[in-house]
Input
Amino acid sequence: MMRYAPWKIALTLAATLMAVLICVPSMIGPDNRAKLAQFLPSWLPPNAIVLGLDLQGGAHLLYEVDRADIIHTMVGNLRDDLRRELREEKIPISGGVGMSARGVQVRIPDADARARITPKLYNLVRLSAGPGGSGLDVSDTGDGLLKLTLTDAAIKNKIAHAVEQTIEVLNRRVNGLGTTEPNIQREGSDRILVEVPGLKDTDRLKDIVGTTAKLEFRLVAEPGYNPGDVDLLDQTDQPGQLPVEKQVMVQGEDLTDAQPGFDQRTGEPVVNFRFNIRGGQRFGQVTSANVGRPFAIVLDNKVISAPRILGPITGGSGQISGRFTVEQANNLAILLRAGALPAKLTIVEERTVGPGLGQDSIDAGKRAAYWAAALVLTYMLITYGVFGVFANLALMIHISFIFAALVLLRATLTLPGIAGIVLTIGMAVDSNVLIYERIREESHAGRSLISALDAGFKRAFATIVDSNVTMFVVAAILYFLGSGPVRGFAVSLALGILTTIVTAVTMTRMMIALWYRHARPTRLPI
Amino acid sequence: MKLLRLAPENTKFPFMRFRRVSYPFSAVLSIVAVALFLVIGMNFGIDFSGGTMMEVKAKSGSADLSYIRDLSSHLGLGDLEVQGFGTPADASIRFGMQPGGDAAQQAAVEKVKQALGESYDFRAISVVGPRVSSELVQQGTLGVVISIIAVLAYLWFRFEWQFALAAITATMHDLLLTVGFFSITQLEFNTTSIAAILTIVGYSLNETVVVLDRIRENMRKYKKMPTDELIDLSINAVLPRTLMTATTVFLALLSLVIFGGHVIRSFSLAMMWGIFVATYSSIFICSPTLIYLGLRNEGRPVSDEVTGVGGKTGARPLSGV
Output
């Protein structure tokens, strides 16, 4: 074992140098990092280690789309579609179209008409994904009653679609906030994770993400209205409710742009918007036909304001006022530009860490790591002397390997992750301890120095592998089942176990071999 | 240079003789741990019980804990747990799940924020809703169960059944005592604690495997030695390593407890307890179990041994009674 080809030694040194170089950008501040990037060869990744939200501060918000809301909308649409279909096909029905939790029902007394319309009903809800087909079960319960029930597949489909759409909208919205590297991703079937690092104002983020932002322009009902055609809606700028016609004249979907601005006369913050062609025409028609009437601007079923139509507005653009603050106007513009959410969102989990606490955690983690390293290095030195120096060198290389691996894998370092590394400092030397103690034993058993060294490495190796496998299994399970910070711990632990085999076994062995060749020892120094 | 030795050279402690003490002792401790868990229970953090945890820091002066405590009666949020930690300006506020689903949790956070207003910085806020917390409980339980099964499978594949069973006994012992530790200290039990428990399981097995490996090796080497002597010999042989590693890990954890900050203190304390228990159990629980399970050194077919002689010399019946 005591001979190593020079190329092997060179390779080891090169790997160590690489690891240290990869770590350097993470050790220095962002300013120095930019300076350094000019000197480093371009193939070296200039990336710093990715810090978890618990270390750099930021918001972790887990949202869930409201299933009930989606199903409710689906049923409502189904009812409207069914009515239209029956009207177009001139099918006589008795009573109205009834709604249930998962579908609608209608009574068609005439058997011929029923037989004629039934096949067409299946087309009311089509599955978009996969082989397609109907998303409806139509059952004839006898005595002319048809029950249309949404299938599980149809609902699943719709929810998946809603989640996708929501993610698109949220991306536009959060980017509108101007934050760096937000992460918005699907989680499970109906959840969306929004992670925004380094954000100070999480309340604003929650406002921006959590608002449905369904914008509608509806006429305010005139006195003597029919209560069935009117919704009584709350107002945001004043107490009391306003009767607003159910019919939606123009929708937020038809907006092409929205920008915050100031009213030219009053100087009040407003949102200026522009319609697409369809919206512009419609808006022109409605305003021409209803001059003098108040026109309600409704956001998420609340009246923002209801200005009186002074004259036809045909230019395709307009202004929303509503006693906004500057920030409110900004937010509304972002929301309108990004579009409405297809369904309500609820926060099911929130973890927000301010930048101050994150920095405290980094400092605490660093301090703990330095102390752990100092204690363990000293302890190894006074226990094993020159062999301790080898183990310590291996330990330092080991730590730089873990960091380099974290950087290269773009893995996230969390506070538990730092704890994992600190723990690794204590555990990594275990392999060395196993080897050294074995060498001592073999030497006491009467072996020559060289043979004891050889046997020590050989025999300890099986134990090292055995004991590390169990730890690795645990780390793997933690990785797959854990979330966020705990996952960071699992990554550090697993990387620590993998690199310990390389550093503690191979590198120490190489160092001892070199030492043996050059120092020509006659007895075991431990 | 005179080097430090924790264990004297060539120790010959008759560890197996302690099994009549250590086994009942540990059994009692395990029962106490379970009883503590059932009677006192754990101090479940919001990860598992749901609810809200806020960390606030007074912008000037120190945090007015009694004022914050009084908020609970104004705001109607149920039990408001307020604790100071770190500097006098720091305080943590914790309250349970609010009735009314996920939206109600957010409303409660807003109430507290408004009540504390401008005089406090909100350094961290965690809100875990009812569904997420029950999922985390499931995940945590699943994690512990799967780890144990996976590790069991590995041991069964790698060792004879007595070894696997002995290792599992020791691991279960460590697991129970760690649960008891969480009960008696009332340290907060959250997802990080699950990580701590699994790491303890890993460490415990690591220790056990080192001892078992040596026992197995010695069984091949000294075919005629009585089992208890053989186990003693093996444990004494690995003792320096056991103490050395336990110390280095202890030193690393000590730095974490002292300097690692309050966020991971409960993790570090649990780990510290865990390595202590794991070291103890690898010596005093795992190995005696081998004897109680009737592991016999001469049980394996031995080619160079006359059956009759082997029966006399190497085969003192060691059922442990």
Observations:
- The first strand of chain A starts at residue 50 and ends at 51.
- DSSP finds 13 helices and 19 strands in chain A.
